[in-house]
Design brief:
Elements (H helix, E strand, L loop, with lengths): L1 E5 L7 H13 L5 E5 L5 H14 L2 H22 L6 H18 L6 H9 L1 H16 L4 E3 L19 H11 L7 E5 L2 E3 L5 E3 L5 H12 L3 E6 L20 E3 H10 L9 H6 L3 E6 L8 E4 L9 E15 L7 H13 L6 E4 L4 E6 L2 H11 L3 E15 L3 H8 L2 E8 L3 E8 L2
Helix pairs in contact: 1-3, 2-3, 2-5, 3-4, 4-6
Length: 421
């Protein structure tokens, strides 16, 4: 059994959905669990709707809701000529359900409401695609992942209950004559059947979880890129495809911010020694990247860029040294406001952190820190991580840049730099 994951870009239009059928037909001898994200930018659109819902902007809310409905109906009409096809009723039912929820007053818990609404993206995409696969003679059963994947009630960042979910997943995800089981990425539910979500971009993680629990042969993530590249083509014009990656390399690259693989995806696969393929849905014959228990003859340097970074420098008001108590307090404040630290460094009298330029969180954090510390910050920086660095790779990154801070490990170097224009 294989697990395939199709992300938003691979299901964004009728044409894209037809392409999925072609891909699945190539694997005619395999049973496949297909994990799907919301179509195109639907999750972002739903986030907009949720924002309007919370703020009581009913006019904008209705406008955005209608836009989303039209988008999905448009994909439908590109797939089914017969407007009496059952898929139309199924989609309208989901929009009715969403409409009913949006007509109710928000609760006092934004994150709870978010999960109850955000799920419609994946429910819609899997419903449409499930019907289309069946009409394309690919026998498919639609599965509601929420019946099987049980989580904590940490809304928007739910933690998987591995024991219970393993039992339920194995009970429900059985092939009874059909070759394909289609289900939603990103979603789960609590023991009381309230919908949860696993964090943005969480569908890769769902694919890994299901592969782990069902002991799949492999996972394939179908993307709009040829595989994992050694740098983002936005910043480099001569990128190299990484054909083979060890689990550790994949974890490190994901951790430092390679956007192709969600960081949480690798661990479950590594634990069961399941290979991960990253392949292009536009070019399914190309081998793509394989992640596994692999060794290779040549280490290719990878570059990961984080733009719009902020350096925060903190020192005690009384000119004392930075000690463990200070650090505990500083980390507590960062954690409380959910501000992630991309890099940190300390000296006797100051502690430095590099963070993303999230203005709202930055304000909350600095306001609180300023009660006890001298706080200075510098914006407009770039953080570059080079895995398997050498001097020539550093030189390449440093062209026309000023070095603000660096941190060297055995395999990775991180350079905080400022563009000299
Ligand atoms: N649809 C969700 C998101 O956009 C999950 C995913 O695509 O992985 O974050
Ligand atoms: Mg995605």
């Amino acid at each position: 059994m294989l697990v395939f994951k199709f992300g938003g870009a691979s299901v964004k239009s009728a044409e894209a959905v037809r392409n999925i059928v072609e891909i699945l037909k190539r694997y005619h001898d395999e049973e496949i669990v297909v994990v799907v994200s919301a179509m195109g930018k639907t999750t972002n659109a739903l986030e907009g709707i949720i924002e309007h819902y919370a703020n009581g902007n009913s006019e904008e809310l209705n406008l955005e809701y209608q836009k989303l409905r039209e988008y999905h109906l448009n994909v439908l009409s590109g797939l089914f000529e017969d407007t009496h096809h059952r898929a139309y009723t199924a989609v309208e039912e989901l929009f009715d359900e969403l409409g009913v929820r949006l007509a109710k007053d928000p609760t006092l818990n934004y994150d709870y409401d978010y999960d109850q609404l955000i799920c419609y993206g994946e429910l819609l995409s899997t419903t449409i695609i499930g019907h289309f696969l069946n009409s394309s003679e690919l026998s498919t059963r639609w599965m509601d992942i929420r019946r099987s994947l049980k989580t904590s009630n940490n809304w928007r960042e739910a933690k998987v209950d591995w024991e219970l979910s393993t039992e339920l997943v194995n009970k429900h995800f059985a092939f009874n004559g059909e070759r394909i089981l289609i289900t939603q990425g990103f979603l789960g539910s609590t023991i009381n059947d309230q919908t949860t979500s696993l964090g943005r971009e969480g569908s890769d993680y769902t694919a890994a979880i299901l592969a782990y629990m069902l002991k799949a042969k492999s996972v394939t993530i179908w993307k709009d890129v040829p595989g994992v590249l050694n740098a983002d083509p936005k910043y480099f014009d001569d990128t190299i495809l990484l054909e083979k990656l060890s689990y550790l390399d994949a974890i490190e690259l994901a951790y430092f911010g390679t956007s192709v693989i969600h960081p949480k995806t690798i661990k479950p696969l590594q634990n069961k020694n399941i290979n991960l393929h990253v392949k292009s849905f536009m070019n399914p014959d190309a081998p793509g990247t394989i992640v596994g228990n692999l060794s290779y003859d040549k280490l290719i340097p990878s570059f990961i860029f984080k733009m719009d970074q902020v350096l925060i420098r903190i020192s005690p008001l009384d000119f004392s040294f930075i000690n463990e108590n200070n650090l505990e307090e500083i980390f507590g404040i960062m954690n409380k406001h959910g501000m992630k630290i991309n890099l940190m460094q300390n000296s006797a009298i100051s502690f430095k952190m590099i963070v993303n330029n999230d203005k709202r969180k930055l304000r909350l954090v600095t306001d609180e820190l300023e009660e006890k510390y001298k706080v200075a910050y510098q914006t407009g920086l770039e953080l570059v991580t080079i895995r398997y660095f050498d001097q020539s790779t550093i030189d390449r990154v440093m062209i026309n840049k000023e070095l603000i801070m660096e941190q060297r490990g055995l395999q990775n170097i991180e350079l905080l730099i400022r563009d000299l224009g």
